[in-house]
Design brief:
The chain has 6 helices and 12 strands. It has 277 residues and is α/β, with parallel strands linked by helices.
Length: 277
C-alpha cells in the first residue's frame, strides 16, 4: 500500500493569518513545526494502518516548508516547485493507492480560515463543471483520473464540510474551528497529532485503487476581483472571457485542466499591482 500526502499549510494546526504561512516571516518559521507535526501524524497513522510506503508532496507556496529532519524516517518527500501536477505530484505514476489532503482549506469566496484557491487574493471564485471548487475538489478530480481515492482530509471545520462533497467516505479531522478568515478556535498540536494519527490509521483501509472512470471534459471558470485580470488570463490559449470579471476554458481531462488552471493563475499573479491589485 502506497499513500501520497498532499501537504498544504493554511489548514495546519494553529494557522490563522497570512504571516503564519508566508515564507521568511517569523510566524512562518514558528508554524513550520506544527505543520510538520500534522503531516508526521498522518505518516505515522498510515504506517499504523498497514501502509508500506508514504510519499509526501509539499504543496504550499514555495513548496519548501516542512522540516524533513522531523519526519518519520520511513517517509519520503517531494520538495520544491515546478512539478507536472503541482499539489498532487506523484499520483500519475500508477502506484499510489490513496491520497491524503493535509492542511487543506476552503475555496475562494467561501467561509473558511485563509480561504482561497491557488492565489491568496485576486481570484474570488472557481467553478468546475458548474460546481464551486476548492483546491480539494480540483485535486480530487485529478487523482480520480488515476483511480485513486481521497482517504483523509485535515483542515478547519469548514474544510471538512467541503470535503464531504468530493470525498464523502474520507476520514476528516478538524484541527480548528472557523471564526473568521483570520481567526479560529484552535486545538493544541498534541491533540491534533493524536486525532490525525488515529484518523489516518482508520483511513488506510480506504486506500484501494480502482478502475479510473471514463475521462470526460471539464469546464473551469474563474472569477477575479478586477476586470483587467480577464485580459491577462485570456493570453493563455483556450481561455476566453465568460463575463465582466470571468474567464473559462474547457479541457478534455483534469490532467490538462489543472495544468491550464495553474498557467492562468501564474499569468494573473504577474498582472497584479501591489497597491491596486
Amino acid at each position: 500500500m502506497k499513500i501520497l500526502i498532499s501537504a498544504d499549510m493554511e489548514g495546519a494546526t494553529g494557522v490563522t493569518w497570512p504571516g503564519d504561512v508566508l515564507p521568511g516571516t517569523p510566524q512562518w518559521e514558528r508554524f513550520r513545526r506544527p505543520f510538520t507535526s500534522d503531516v508526521n501524524a498522518a505518516v505515522l497513522g498510515f504506517f499504523d494502518g498497514g501502509a508500506d510506503e508514504v510519499l509526501i508532496n509539499e504543496a504550499h507556496w514555495s513548496m519548501r516548508n516542512l522540516l524533513l529532519e522531523e519526519l518519520d524516517q520511513r517517509a519520503q518527500m517531494i520538495t520544491g516547485k515546478h512539478k507536472t501536477l503541482s499539489m498532487v505530484e506523484g499520483v500519475q505514476h500508477g502506484d499510489v493507492d490513496g491520497v491524503a489532503f493535509i492542511g487543506y482549506h476552503t475555496g475562494a469566496g467561501t467561509e473558511g480560515v485563509l480561504a482561497h484557491t491557488y492565489l491568496p487574493n485576486s481570484v474570488t471564485g472557481v467553478w468546475a463543471n458548474g460546481a464551486r471548487a476548492s483546491e480539494g475538489l480540483l485535486n480530487s478530480l485529478v487523482v480520480a483520473e488515476y483511480g485513486v481515492p481521497v482517504v483523509l482530509v485535515t483542515g478547519d471545520d469548514k474544510t471538512c464540510q467541503d470535503a464531504k462533497g468530493y470525498a464523502p467516505d474520507a476520514r476528516c479531522v478538524a484541527v480548528k474551528d472557523y471564526v473568521s478568515r483570520y481567526a479560529a478556535v484552535c486545538r493544541t498540536p498534541a491533540r491534533t497529532a493524536a486525532d490525525i494519527r488515529e484518523a489516518a490509521r482508520e483511513a488506510a483501509v480506504l486506500a484501494v485503487r480502482h478502475e479510473p472512470p471514463h475521462r470526460r471534459p471539464f469546464t473551469i471558470e474563474l472569477e477575479f476581483d478586477a476586470e483587467h485580470l480577464v485580459g491577462a488570463a485570456s493570453v493563455v490559449p483556450g481561455v476566453e472571457r465568460s463575463g465582466e470579471r470571468r474567464v473559462a476554458f474547457t479541457s478534455p481531462t483534469m490532467y490538462e485542466g489543472i495544468r491550464c488552471f495553474k498557467a492562468v493563475t501564474t499569468v494573473v499573479s504577474a498582472a497584479v499591482e501591489e497597491q491596486y491589485g
